[in-house]
């Protein structure tokens, strides 16, 4: 059997399933939706505050983002956030792997 093709097939099936998982969980368990909304509100506010600092403009922009991303288009935002999270984990795993291979001693292989 072609082992290289199996991993590509696995990734092609697993990534869409993982992206669809948050909206599915939020439909089945309403408490999970509330918890994820609260986490998203804090995440959006701290991100805007990190870029703009404290002030009235921060509150206005954060409120607009929270209204649209958390209350209006939440299922799309949750899927996009999950995709971004997956992407960042994959990128950092490649970086960690690269650092690990560069730190090995070529003479011993460890």
Give a brief rundown of this model.
Keywords: Membrane, Transmembrane, Transmembrane helix. With 110 residues, this protein is an all-alpha fold.
Q: What is the average of the pLDDT values?
A: 82
Q: Which percent bin holds the helix content?
A: over 70%
pLDDT < 50 stretches: none
Count of individual helical segments? 4
Can you put this structure into words, describing what you see?
The protein starts with a helix and ends in an 8-residue tail after the last helix. The longest helix has 29 residues, at 74-102. It has one domain. Helix 1 (3-28) runs antiparallel to helix 4. The chain is built from 4 helices and no strands. 86% of the residues lie in helices and 0% in strands. The protein has helices spanning 3-28, 30-52, 56-72, 74-102. It has 110 residues and is an all-alpha fold. The chain crosses the membrane at residues 7-26, 32-48, 55-75, 81-100. Keywords: Membrane, Transmembrane, Transmembrane helix.
Fold topology:
Elements: H1 3-28, H2 30-52, H3 56-72, H4 74-102
Helix pairs in contact: 1-2, 1-4, 2-3, 3-4
Supply database-style keywords.
membrane, 110 residues, 4 helices, mainly alpha, transmembrane, transmembrane helix
């Amino acid at each position: 059997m072609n082992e290289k093709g199996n991993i590509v097939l696995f990734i092609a099936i697993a990534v869409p399933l993982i992206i669809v998982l948050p909206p599915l969980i939020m439909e089945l368990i309403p408490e999970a939706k509330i918890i994820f909304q609260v986490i998203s509100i804090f995440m959006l506010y701290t991100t805007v505050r990190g870029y703009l600092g404290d002030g009235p403009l921060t509150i206005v922009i954060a409120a607009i983002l929270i209204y649209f991303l958390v209350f209006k288009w939440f299922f799309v935002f949750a899927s996009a956030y999950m995709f971004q999270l997956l992407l960042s984990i994959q990128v950092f795993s490649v970086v960690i792997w690269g650092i690990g291979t560069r730190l090995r001693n070529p003479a011993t292989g460890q």
